[in-house]
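Data deposition worksheet. Section B asks for the primary sequence of the deposited chain exactly as it was used as input, without tags or linkers unless they were present during the calculation. Section C holds the resulting structure in token form. Section D is free text for depositor observations; keep each observation to a single sentence. Incomplete worksheets are returned to the depositor.
Section A, Depositor: J.P.
Section B:
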Amino acid sequence: MKKVLLFKSVSEDYVKAFSEHNYQTVFIEPLQFVYVNLQELSEKLQNLHYQGLILTSPRAIESVSKCWAPSKFVTWNTKRIYTVGESSARKVKLLLGLEALGSRTGNAENLAKLILQENSSPSNFLFPCGKLSSELLPTMLQSGGIIVDALTVYETKEIENLRLDLMRVNENEEVCCMVFFSPSGCEYVQRQLQTFSNKLAHLPHFAIGNSTAHKIENLGLEIAGVAAKPKAENVLESVEHYFRTL
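Section C:
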């Protein structure tokens, strides 16, 4: 049974999808998050001039939930909430009680196209995001006449035991490939892999989406595959396709 190393927190969706196709999953979480500017976010959520809210990461949704009070933010029930994947849409429903649009878009570029298609210019959107988030979505929207108010609500840091976790997996597990789930996670992992002799650095590298794939390439590494959508079954398809065509 092949083992796949996934750089994310343990996920039952991934365990299930991969085990059904005879793969074992090994998880390493490379990131830790610090929430910032929550007071400012709370004030902006009470501002009535936004037509909608864009939430492109689980952490952005969690940051909103930390200052969320349905009675205080009842106006958002009538506004457009956009997100980029089905699991994020479920999270919006669970934590905020709101229905999200765009769950099938799969990436920032497709989401931007949908927002431009569904909203007239000038519309004003609040975009809580991470400190290292890609400029692709706001740039596309602004060039189409949509005003984007981006607010950094979380910062990403390298998790403390990353090097030890990588050394443990290198020593004890025979993994066939690695899957990366964020540009920053990829950067932290690659930096640590340069600090000790290992076989992990030479394995095929897969990405959850385009921005992570670009980061891998910018680090001078080859991409073995990119998931068509940010879902477990699409990541699995990408891995299977690579090993089938070897």
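Section D:
The chain has ten helices and ten strands.
The chain has two domains: 2-30+159-245, 34-156.
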